[in-house]
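Page 42, continued from yesterday. The earlier attempt failed because a stray header line got pasted into the input along with the sequence. Redoing it now with the clean sequence only.
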Amino acid sequence: MYFGVLGPLVVRTDAGAPVSVPDTKVRTLLLDLLVHRGHPVSADRLIEDLWGDRPPRNATGTLQARISQLRTALDRAEAGSRALVAHGPAGYTLTADVVDSNIFEQLVSAGRLREALDLWRGPAYADVPDHEFARATRDRLEEARLTATEALLEQTDDALPELTELVRRHPLRERLRALHMRALYRTGRHDEALRSYDELRRMLADELGVDPGPELVDLHAAVLRHDPSLQPSRLPAPLNDLIGRTEAVHEAQRLLTTNRLLTLVGPGGVGKTRLALELGRNHAGDVRLVELAPLKQDDVLEALAAALDLRDESTNLLPRLVESLSTRQLLLILDNCEHLDIADLVRRLLAAAPGLRVLATSREPLGLPGERLLDVPPLELHAAADLFAARAGVNDSEAVKAICRRLDGIPLALELAATRVRALGVQGLADRLHDRFRLLSGGRGVPERQRTLRATIDWSWDLLDPEERAMLRRLAVHAGTFSLEAATEVSRLPDAVLLALVDKSLVAVSAERYRLLESVAAYSLERLAEAGEEAETRQHHAEYYLELAQRAEEQLRGPEQRTWLRRLDQEAANFRTALDAAPQLSLKLVNALAWYWYLRGRLGEARRSIAAALAVPGQDPADRAAATVWQVGMTATDAKGTNLTETTEETLAQYDVPARALWFLTTTQWAYGDRDVLMGRIDRAIEAFTADGDRWGLAAALSTRAQLNIVHADLDAMRRDGHRSLELFDELGDDWGRLQATYSLIVAAEVSGDYPTAEGYLSEAVQQAEELGLWTEVSFRTSGLGRLAFLTGDYARADALHERARRLAIEQSNKSAEEYAEVGLGLSARHQGRLDDAEAHFTKWLAWLAQVGGTPGIAFILAQLGFIAEQRGDFTRAQALHQQGYEAAQQVGDERAIALALEGLAGAAEDPDRARRLLAEAEALRAKVGAPLPPAERFDVERITSRARRRPSTGSP
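This time it went through. Structure tokens are written below.
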């Protein structure tokens, strides 16, 4: 008989029929006996458990009556079962072998966690929640359930919702909290992960008087330093086990430990890629994969930038790649190098990045000094037989060995041949291979292994029906991976044909993305040309990806933004292929992709692609106008200087651009261009969006106007436009838009000293940016959180946040974000009295700011350097620096920057009367723009005011 206690009581016969146990007391009695299953329970104990301190008048007789009722219920359901409840000198004993709690514990011990947890139907011993006799057993089972759940969730990728609920129910459980932090981190919600730790730390201190354990402390430190080992693997998941390469894996790991460049060499189909991916999965640190097979020489840098999550802003991408890698500990896998000239690139990256190791796969060495080679040979006979037997689902035999010998132990050939065992049997397959390859054995000029591999694909091809052949050859126009939808649309064939090719191991699938193996792709492309279909199929490919990009463009401005960003990320190689294959569609395609490129920071790729498209004659004038606008805007975003205002005005005069283009040309220059010109443009755009009923355009333009008002600290205008923009973007569900709208609201809250509001917006912005994968935005907003920590006097947190933001900015090779973070570190150092450190943080950015036209930043840094000189007592230098800062602030016209310079000049003034006049002038200027200094920012003013009061007046004017 089966008893269930993991939830409400369940009793079933061996045949599965339900057993009715009448009366609440009888069910409680049964549960008591189940708690002590196999051990006697005295009558006195049972009476106390059932009735407590209010037993019936004839307690023993009543208990015996309940025992009789239980036996009768069991026996009625299954004859002879009354014997399960036995009586002896020590009391009553239930002998039951099948209890779900026992089965649960056995499954957990066997590692079958999902099956074990599926047994639970509710709380253990749910019928007796308040009975003391079940408490210890119930607690033990619930603890085991929670432990098993943790172990299962540790193996699950998408477990955040369940972990969030479990943490809510068990807030002090450290292992659960660690899993929750990891899940938050892996979904891009890094700041939430840190807050989860802080919440636990406070609760442990308040309720238990203890600190988090060492494992959680280490995890917290790893999150702070953005440790790449916390991320889930970026490598494609293997479809099956790696067989026959144990020694090769060990040798390759040994070589990678002592060498920074290892190249796996061997013929096509021998398994170099599979071995490299296994090494990557076994690597303890950050691993990035660049699949070079679908790329041309000009695509390599962009693909590498994408693999590193690097914003492609610069016209010269290589220095930014070098800079990004210079601080990373990374294993970079470069797969299928033989058709590209990448040796010099690899040499430069390794020379500049001491933490970088490169694992390459190629049919020939790269030819670099220090390169170690590991030959990947075909499998030896026993390993080949193991592989073939495993893939075909058969036992090893002489026929299997014969097949392996004829296929030279090449894994790809074995994989392909194994798919035919179901149709032909092992012996039938062996017979056909013998006949087939005897005809091919006399070829000249081609290595035997490659002839054999080609013959295997030939033979697989011959076994396909006409539709399958058409699908396979048409799939060859795809670059890298592709979706089921793309395969069917480009091939003009039903999806069942593709799935049949998957079954035949000619198409690989992982995470709903499909791809052709390298050798199969090359073979299929030849067949496509032979069929005379290449031009037509490439046209279909370009048309499909144009339609996909156009469909995505509006989806990137709404609630599906994250989904479509990820989807377009997956199709990057196919978009490049489409641009090359169909020049006549290139302007339409770059216009459709431009917003995606902008969101992802792929500005260099955008400029290059748009320039190439504009060079193609005979395209639509409207498409040409739109592409020109995108090109100017992308250039403005990268240049950051004021010199593009004239170029932009020429573009506007030449083309009748729509309102969204007018907005884009404005927002890409808001921080550096002529404010009056930009304000005029944005007002025109807002008027047009309002007239057209374009809510997205209106939301975007309002956020830009709010940002333009930051220069003069018009807090009312910033809040008014920012709130309306945020309201519209909330209605549209556009997370990128929310990021833009909250920027001015954050600045307004900080300027007015409303730090809780600013922190709320910033924390939400960090989460949104992380979820979207906009890592430069994450850096900026993390610096914003660091500034708030600095303003509230938490210098340790401020430094940790600014350092994290700085590292992110360096990884992204984004100078603006890096400068913002390092200025934060400089402010904190100065306020802590570490003047040398502060000076080093500030000084290094003056030349760069001058180069990009960052006059506001120059004014601010000159003020900080002036304060440092004044704090050291060097008033002459302080006076000179503050005067330069004052002139720069006047040039910008920012009243707050002018006030800061006046405060600095007051500190450098030897005459206390002059100091007081300058301070009063600064205060009046701040009051005029409605932005008086909040208490947290009065550090320098109070220092200078106090000194001026202590010094006697000189009477000078």
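Notes: The chain has a mean pLDDT of 89.
Reminder to self: strip header lines before submitting.
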